[in-house]
Structure prediction request, 225 residues.
Amino acid sequence: MDRKTGSTFLAARSNSSPPTVFNPVLDGDYVAWAEKGSQFGQVKLFHLPTKQGKTIGRLVSQGLYNEFVSLRNGKVIWTDSHDGKGYYYVYDIRTGRSASYESPAPFPAYAEYDNGLIYAIHLEDLEYPDQQTFGYFDLKTKRFSRFPVSHGIIQYFDVSNGKLAFLDDRGAVSVYEQRNGKWKAVKVSLDRYPRLLYFDQQDHLIVDQEDTKQDRRWLNIVKWP
Prediction:
């Protein structure tokens, strides 16, 4: 919907149940999403001012772990798996060019892009999601680094402008910030019962809380000084 005019238009349609269009993300004038197909999936990019869309990538593997795309800083990021190997894919909106880089694990999952780094949960086997390695691939050096701080099994994570937030399997939220090449813990005050988390486009950390015993649900919004 155009907030100025209140007008709406259709960018994509999901034609089946379960749905075929997954998790559209917005950044500036663009929306990107993954779309399932009968044989291969597709990665779509839509330009809002012109109402024009196009396919920018193909997905060989179509699973929950890679049906999410990341759209930030003029780049679309997604992951895929084939021939026993995992890959990161990068589409540059300005140039219209794509590149791929091999992942250290066959199933790089839930990838997010921030400041030249591709963050992902890396899985050796989709049957064992608890056996995971979290880290990031540097597009400049073409090197992968494991996140150096110990943490629980990640349920959700997000990253924005050098800040990284986890929600682990124990229900603990951890926030870190990269300073001078090192990761430092950031103290945040939150209520109990976190359900999921994400950063908004103003870099606020949004934590969705739910107390099932009290039948109550609310949001915590963390703003940085």
DSSP finds no helices and 19 strands in the chain. The chain has two domains: 1-146, 152-225. The mean pLDDT is 91. The radius of gyration is 18 Å.
